[in-house]
Request: fold
Amino acid sequence: MSPNHSLYGQASAFADELTLLLSRSLPDAPAAIASISGDRVVVQPEHPVHLYIGGAKRATLGVRFRCELDSRGDWLAVENSSFDVRADVDRTPVLRFEYIRQANRAPAAHVQVHAHRGALSLLLAQANHHKAHDMSALHIPVGGARFRPCIEDVIQMLAEEFGFDTLGTWRQAVAEGRESWRRKQVRAVVRDWLSARSSRRPRLARLHRHPTSPRRRRRPHRRTHPLVTLGA
Reply:
């Protein structure tokens, strides 16, 4: 695959991939679209994905990617993303998977759980946490920028842990999507490594031209004559 310098073009292709994944995994899934937002492009379903249990709608899945081109202006990069599960009985998310590329204090990739646990609240209060009774104030790190959970991981969790209704092709769709995601991340890691390596070369060249310590002078090589043995 060669780089496409059109941000919107790459984001639209990504939206098509997301549409295919959702349509093969969850019933009544909406199509994903790419929409321009300033100098970025947002990729998300047309509306939150409805989640069913036994055919009855019980929750929604929100999916959103805010995209830009990478630092070289070649490849699509995710500036931030969020996946959130919300029960119909409450507008507050049950949990959120978030990624913020330029995160400052919180881990770039993290999970926030909206729940209550007495022992945890007590620990946070003892540590003088500013939101001791709000478990969602904790940003639980997950995998870092390159190996964070993908949307396929979330769909598998919804199917196997929550028991939401799925389509018969969901396992294959998730496996194929996850494999594609991991390959893209590995390629991105390699590009990052090559870029960092090339940026160090000029510095290394300067160090070779101007070493910090004087070189030792080699002593002249003294030639020795081989031992000659005379036969009788």
Summary: The first helix runs from residue 7 to 25.
